[in-house]
Amino acid sequence: MEKILYVTDLDGTLLNKQDCISSFSIQTINDLVDKGMLFTYATARSLVSASKVTKGLSMNIPIIAYNGAFIFQPSTGEILSKEDFTEEERSRVKEVLTQHHISPLVYSFIDGIEKVSWIPQNENLGIRRYLSLRQGDKRFRAVTDIEALYEGDMFYFTCIGEKDELQPIYSIFSKDSRYRCTMQQELYRPEYWCEIMPAMASKANAIKKLKEMWGCTKVISFGDAINDIPMFEISDECYAVENAVDELKEVATGLIESNEDDGVAKWLMNQRGRGL
């Protein structure tokens, strides 16, 4: 019998426009997990942020966070897999962003504790909104200068701003094989996000690891955005929600109902006859 790993994106796919999972989706998925379905998510969010928006969802296997840079055991926060920069690669990011007057959010481990550093005096509207949605998050660390901003074991950089100011950054790092760089417009918002991570940090690579960890023979995935294309490419079946971008729909096995209409949960519920 096939052992199937089901993987969904969160924002725009499993989450609705209120950044939450409907009670119908939670109940449906939990019921299937109780019956043995191997279900997880792969997100650009951190474990802390993802845990808040997936509250109530039963997770029986590890989850993929930071666009594949980490695989976590959600119940304990244990890091099961991590992709890293070299010191030279971290220095290069600092150099380029400083030259282009970009003040990022820097994700790092400082004395073994995960922190997100930023310079408040350089905040723009996009960063201010991002911070407002994470009030009380103990990871956030306001600093006053560039040297403090780039402290610790840095593993992820997020630049939020206008497309024109971020395009040069994307052009540099997307052409450098030492990095994986993505840029897309924030969901339901005007600002753009340019994210820089280690070359091997991707949802696709993390899913391959998770598939091996759990001895699965098949992967079925769900998504909505361009950054889900690599995940779709390594899946045996892949389904785009109705609200997905056209580029993702073109490579999908099929289309399902939108995130507002519980598309993922309804599709899973309808597959009971296929041996879930």
Approximate shape: globular
Order of helices and strands: EHHEHEEEHEEHEHEHEEHEHEHEH
The total number of structural domains is: 2
Tell me the total number of β-strands: 14
Count of helical segments? 11
- Runs in which pLDDT lies below 50 for 5 or more consecutive residues are none
Query: Structural class, from helix and strand content?
Result: alpha/beta
- End-to-end Cα distance: 11 Å
Largest sheet: 6 strands, mixed
Describe this structure in words.
The protein is of the alpha/beta class and 276 residues long. The protein folds into 2 domains: 152 residues, Rossmann fold; 112 residues, Hypothetical Protein, Haloacid Dehalogenase-like Hydrolase, Chain: A, domain 2 (2-Layer Sandwich). It is built from 11 helices and 14 strands. It has a 6-stranded mixed beta sheet. α2 runs parallel beside α11. The relative contact order is 0.18. The model has no long low-confidence stretch (mean pLDDT 93).
How do the helices and strands line up, and which of them pair or pack?
Layout: E1 4-8, H1 10-14, H2 23-34, E2 38-41, H3 47-53, E3 63-65, E4 70-73, E5 78-82, H4 87-99, E6 105-110, E7 113-118, H5 125-132, E8 140-142, H6 146-149, E9 153-161, H7 163-173, E10 179-185, E11 192-198, H8 203-213, E12 218-223, H9 229-233, E13 237-241, H10 246-251, E14 254-256, H11 263-270
Parallel strand pairs: 1-2, 1-12, 7-8, 12-13, 13-14
Antiparallel strand pairs: 3-4, 4-5, 6-7, 6-9, 9-11, 10-11
